[in-house]
């Protein structure tokens, strides 16, 4: 419960198991890569990647 008596909005976390591969997508050009860790920036356009297992809201 929060201070005003309401239930907090749930947070959905992506498991961070070092053995599990995730798919990452470039936020600008759509390039996709798979890896066990965050790839950093896109090799094609230098924009950031996002983990496709997380929702965009």
Automatic annotation (TrEMBL):
Residues 19-55 form the DUF7129 domain. Signal peptide: none annotated. This is DUF7129 domain-containing protein. It comes from Halalkalicoccus paucihalophilus.
């Amino acid at each position: 419960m929060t201070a005003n008596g309401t239930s907090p909005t749930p947070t959905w976390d992506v498991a961070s198991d070092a053995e599990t591969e995730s798919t990452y997508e470039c936020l600008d050009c759509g390039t996709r890569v798979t890896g066990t860790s965050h790839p950093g920036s896109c090799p094609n356009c230098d924009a950031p990647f996002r983990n496709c297992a997380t929702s965009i809201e």
